[in-house]
Every structure is written in structure tokens, then in C-alpha cells.
Amino acid sequence: MAEYIFGVDIGGTSIKFGLFLTDGTVLDRWEVNTRLENNGTEIIPDVAKSIQNKMYEKKLKKEEIAGVGVGVPGPVTENGEVIVAVNLHWGHTKVAKDLEKLLNIPVKAGNDANVAALGEMWKGGGRGTKNLIMVTLGTGVGGGIIVDGKIVAGAHGAGGEIGHASVEPDFPIACNCGNHGCLEQFTSATGIVRIAKEEIAKAENTKTVLIENEISAKSIFDAYKEGDEVSKKIVNQFARYLGKALAIFACVIDPEIFVIGGGVSKAGQPLLRAVEQYYRKFAFKSCKETPLVQAKLGNDAGIYGAAKLALDAAR
Amino acid sequence: MAEYIFGVDIGGTSIKFGLFLTDGTVLDRWEVNTRLENNGTEIIPDVAKSIQNKMYEKKLKKEEIAGVGVGVPGPVTENGEVIVAVNLHWGHTKVAKDLEKLLNIPVKAGNDANVAALGEMWKGGGRGTKNLIMVTLGTGVGGGIIVDGKIVAGAHGAGGEIGHASVEPDFPIACNCGNHGCLEQFTSATGIVRIAKEEIAKAENTKTVLIENEISAKSIFDAYKEGDEVSKKIVNQFARYLGKALAIFACVIDPEIFVIGGGVSKAGQPLLRAVEQYYRKFAFKSCKETPLVQAKLGNDAGIYGAAKLALDAAR
Fold it and tell me: What is its EC number (chains A, B) (predicted)?
């Protein structure tokens, strides 16, 4: 009987693997370097080899594997084709089909941020729910939407691209995407540092522990926890942008929970409480009490979600 | 074999009925008054009687009916219970269960705006799609979200409550819901008239065909089509608010299509083109070409959607 699943998270630097039981117990985790040479054509064969080696090592037969799930940093269609994945040097690539051919095991593929959201639903901060919005606050801002236990990939693979919701279209600085005033310009690690520099320049007479050339999301939240006045202003701006945006998103799908992950979210409860305060203020009355929780799986969300994707397809 | 379905749309003034074949062909349409007396307790028995009379008239047996779908003006849970429906004088009401008991036929219930979106997907402006956002521009602004062919009801029945997305939280006037700067304050029939009054007051020296005491959404769009300068400013404001909000919503679920309905949408193509221009400007690159179309079923969207709801449950 098929009782094992592989979850694979392909990133621009490394490929993470997990071997799971179908109940979500992780038996093994490992990673290999991502080889970008030859337009990334080595990647899929490398994934296949790594899985086959693990099967040999663990004495697993093909019939015992329910499936392989793969997360990819780019838009992925319903049938597992990637349109483009810049970080992997990929153009149009039939990930699921190609890997399936090499392994002769069913493969499912999804966008990495969406797959991470699925992982957090299965075994992380959103455990026990079937409808959630995950927000990943890192260098950029990513997201994933889960409705009725399934990823909302979207008609153009842009489901959950909440970092590019243009919340301040008159904002003078352009986002990497070309638009102006995207949520990630205010709530990513980079965005917070930009806000911080502005606030420090404005607050010349206010004492602050922040030192202009050493500012990071971490130093700002550390200072905020110590009660630093300038940091309070910075965090309030950040929290207002995010809380307001989440309140708007809630009017679309009314999730059971918001799961906040990514490097910035390591600031933990003080950050969540600041965002929550604005969320509760701006949310539609029926949704005011929707919980905001911290993601739990960290960098493993991808392999968990990929495994769950394969598991759901096998059922 | 079950080949007929009833679609029912319960409103505060009248209850609309449709008798359909399972392929969506409408065989009969009729309506009865909504009796609000006795806290609306007459409504469900009235619906049952009207359906039974029609079955008698058309000589339909219970076994030939695949199901009955019902749209209700209020939040409806997954199992067909209404939390509250002010316009029907209802508190907590087990619509599906109660009607099922009277008819001995399977009943499904949903929120009326969500059900209308399902109707537009099945046989209206969104025909051929499975993922859409419907916006209903009337006295207020309602909406419905369809993902993978199914209504997104939301954890608190607030899925698709896009009229209450707080897009301008600093707006001084409060919305009926208690928040400030909800989308419906700018893009409903009432909202457009308010914007119009402000623009007319500002534009004392600009000639306009608009007459202050006779302003309606219709007169504004009529004047806009004739090239009236003040009306252009009004419609631009309206279109910018709606286009910007749709661009944000698209980052959440990335629909295949937007369907615009309700009284205000009768202004037709010029309105759609004005909104589209702002939508294209603010949307994330992958979603810029998502079509905006007019709803097609008008007041019948509810009975079509209710029938589809029952049909999907029967399959």
C-alpha cells in the first residue's frame, strides 16, 4: 500500500526534500544544491536522482510512494506546467510531466508560496482550518490563498500575489513589478527599512536607539520591543499598511485565519499584535475576530505543502 | 430520473421562482409577495406551497425533482442556516432543513449575492468560466466570489462582501456598516450621487447638464456619454475607486473574469471601459488583461444561481 510521499521545494540556491508518511510524519529531510547551468535543465533530473537514491537507501518500492509534490518559484498551471521561473533560469517547463516520466510516480507541482500556505494549513500555524490567507514577509511579500483545503492558483497563476496589491498607487517609487505603491513596498524587510530611514530623518530631535547604517527589520522590532519612540512610529506605519490590506482581503474570501510567515515575522507577538490592532479596526464587522497567527514551519513549509499537494492528488 | 430543479430567490418584497431543466433551460418563472408578518415565519411555508402548487400544475413527481436551491439576503452557513436576515425579519433560521422537511426534496441555501454570482457563471456574463468575481452596483455594493465553480461563502458568511472593503479608512463619513471609507460609499448608486454633488459644488463655472436636485446614477452616466465635463470628473472618480479595488481583489484570487451587475451597471459599455482603464493601470502584470463584462441575467441571476446550487449538490 502507498504510504510514503516526497515533498520537494525547489529554490534558486538549494532544493529541499522531505520524506513523509501520509499522516504528515516527516521521516527524513535533506537538501542538494540547485544547478542553474544549461538553463536549469539539470534541475529536474537532479530531483529525480535524489529521490531515487533515497528510495534505494530506505528500500522503498515505487508502489509504496503515493506521489511526489513539488514547489517552484514561479507561476504554475493546474496541470503542473511552469510558465517562467526566473530564479531557476527556466522558461516554459512541464515540471510535473517531466519528473513523472523520470520517476514513474505521480507528480503534482505548485507555486512555492502557495504550496507553503498549504503546508501551514496541514501541519503549521493554520492546522485544523481549511480556509486561510498566508502572508510571507521577507525581502518581498508573498502569499498563498487556501479555500476549502485547496490552493487558489488563479487564472494566470497570480492567486495569492498579495505583495503586489497596489495599495498606494500614487506612491512615487516604482515596485520591482513596475507598478507603484504595492503592499511589499511598505511591509517587506526592505520596505520597513525604507520607512525607518524616512522616520529617522523626520525625527531629528527624538532620541532613538536605531543607528541609520545598521537598520534592519530585526533591529527595528528589537527597538520597538524596548519602547523606542521612533521605532514605534515605524512599526505603526508598517502595521497600518498590513492591517488595512488584510481587512480588504478578508472581504474577498473571509478566511478562518491569517498565517504570517517569512523572516520579518520572527519579530513574533509584538508584530502580530500591532498588525492585529489595525486589522480589527478596518475589518468588516463579521470578520473582525479572525485570528492572526505566526507561521510555524519556517523554511520547511514548502516540503510539507508539496507533500500535502501530492497526497490530495492521490486520494 | 430527476430532471427538474427549482431556483428560489427570497427578497424583502417578493420571492422569485424558476423551474429549470438540469441543463439550465428555464421552463417557468413566477413570483409571490414576501409576507413579513410573524417575524417572517410565513416565508418558508409560502415557498413550499408555491413549489407544491407548481408541481401539481405541471404534473411533476417528487422523484423528478433533483433539488431546490434558495438564495437569502443574509449570511448563510455551509449547511444552509441563516444567521440573520434583517430584510426578512429573520433571526437564526434553518432554511434548508425547514424547507426540506416541508417538501421532502433536497434543499440547498446560499447568500443571495453569492448565488447570483453562481447564476452569472452558469448562464450569464461569466458563462464558460469557473473562477470569477461578481460586483453588484446597486443602492449598496454587493459581490460574490466563485472559485473552481463553487461559491466562496467564507468563515463568517462574509465571502464576497467587497462593498465593505475599507478602501479609504480616513474618509470622514461612516458607512452603514459602521466602518469608514467602504467601497460602496464611492461606487454604489448613492455613492456616485454624493460624489456628483461634491463635484458640482466645486465646478461652479463649468457648464454642466446635470441639475442638482435630479441627479441619479443614470443621469450622470447619460451626461457622461454626451461628453459633459463635470460628469467626466464624477465618472472618473467612481471608476478609479472601483478599478483600484478590483486590482487589489485580483491579487487575492486572480479570477478569469469580472462580472459587473446591478442597477448602476445598466450604464453599460462606457462605464465598463472607464473602470477597465483604471483596473488595467493598477493590476499586477499577470492579471492586467482579465476581462470586465456586464452581467446578463439581471434580476433572474438569483433563480439561475439557486438552481445551479441545488444541481451541484445533487451531483
Answer: 2.7.1.2
